[in-house]
Task: structure prediction
Amino acid sequence: MGTIGELGEFGLVGRLTRRLPQGPDVLLGPGDDAAVVAAPDARVVATTDLLVEGRHFRRDWSGPYDIGRKAAAQNLADVVAMGARPTALLVGLAAPLDTGADWAERLYDGLADECAAAGASVAGGDVVGASEITLAVTALGDLGGAPPLTRSGARPGDVVAVRGRLGWSAAGLALLAAGGGGPAELIAAHRRPAPPYEAGAQARGLGATALLDVSDGLVQDLGHIAAASGVRIEIGSAALPVPEILGPDGTRHVLTGGEDHAFAGTFPAEAVLPSSWSAVGVVTEGAGVLVDGRDPGPGGWDHFRV
Amino acid sequence: MGTIGELGEFGLVGRLTRRLPQGPDVLLGPGDDAAVVAAPDARVVATTDLLVEGRHFRRDWSGPYDIGRKAAAQNLADVVAMGARPTALLVGLAAPLDTGADWAERLYDGLADECAAAGASVAGGDVVGASEITLAVTALGDLGGAPPLTRSGARPGDVVAVRGRLGWSAAGLALLAAGGGGPAELIAAHRRPAPPYEAGAQARGLGATALLDVSDGLVQDLGHIAAASGVRIEIGSAALPVPEILGPDGTRHVLTGGEDHAFAGTFPAEAVLPSSWSAVGVVTEGAGVLVDGRDPGPGGWDHFRV
Result:
């Protein structure tokens, strides 16, 4: 199979694009100066993230397929968190020239499969040589005529609810850092998050006033809603979904763990939330985030723990 | 001012976004899970490039402001080469934590100013720590109701024409590599290309059948049009715009130099091209690119030179 350096830019691009099925939203796919993607709403939701080896993933802890799925997931979740439907991904790959071409192919398989799970496609990108592996992922989406679900719409009296796994990725990461023992489901959850992509449209239908995906940890991310909305968010730890598998540090993982890309939102008090959403707190007057009435500290846990 | 590591992610993002004016196409700018950008045509043109320090720029050869302008220019030019109007840029910056915050600020000033020159804005992005500086730039644009100007529409009998400087960046790079003597305009052209952004709409108005921006060199990029269109392109070296300032290697720089982001297109033979376009060749039956009737070789020059 050889290395990406042996294939060269055009050879590698040809090899990778052949693995990328194009969905109906991609009007012009890879191969020209730019892609053309449907934006029927006449607005496009767009977000970009960089993932750097050693900081955002480790090749000895995750295979290329899972790295691709995770890189796609974190950007697709950002689009969904705006209440939008993901349409396309653009992917830049910087990698040492001695990286195996098969490694790159498996990476793109993961990107393509995660896109397919969200109804999107990898519509374009770039590959360049570099001394470390960096992935630059841009996701696009369509709002379908609705206003974007921002972080700034939470109002006192709203209910705070979450959908999706929380703390699983952090618990899995802790296991990997400790040598890899423990429940395989947790390690799998760290390697490949499973955001419930239907949560964006669902939240919109439920009248959500604010929504985001939990990438830095529940307390920290709810702090973004509190700051943008000019409100306080009060969480009750007893209401948190903390399954036994998360172990003795479960509550901490749920409050501070990122990377599961669960969705957290605020809803009018009268909203009837289906069981896929867990009500974990309320919006009040004030600022910041309280857990059980106390300031959990900058790490989302520090003071709380004392 | 300090380093980006001292500021931290949120401090740095706040500092940078304050420097980014938002144009009318940005409906929701930095600060949420994603940006929202106008796409009045109901399609969005999207392209992404990675720029890696040491491969695509050198900090000892270019200051951060020029690096920002160049990074924006190369992506904005890709949007224009589709016949579209650039609307927004998303920028990912990976950098060592000891990078000066003022360096990052000047980089974003350059990105913002180049966007403004093309009628676009920096609508969002990401900053992360890394061991080398990498810029990931995504550009979006609007087609205004017209079909995209692809690489695949050239037809035998068309005229091949270019607009914008060719060879200037390569000549400037050669001067820098040789120690920096020679015309300052060439070095400036290498540091900061000046794509004629109006060329896309103009080419569309002139009935262009194919268009791209010259990023890898005229011969190599015209080869992309030839391959995508299933035609041959025949260039006459005497018709090339080779100003005296380019020196004795001028013709080679014009044929093989990239990074000026001039535009090259094919037009119906009856098109009346304004003086801003230079007719440099014709489209014929066949394949590949000939210069003065000969195959210029894989580098766009090698055989030609012999």
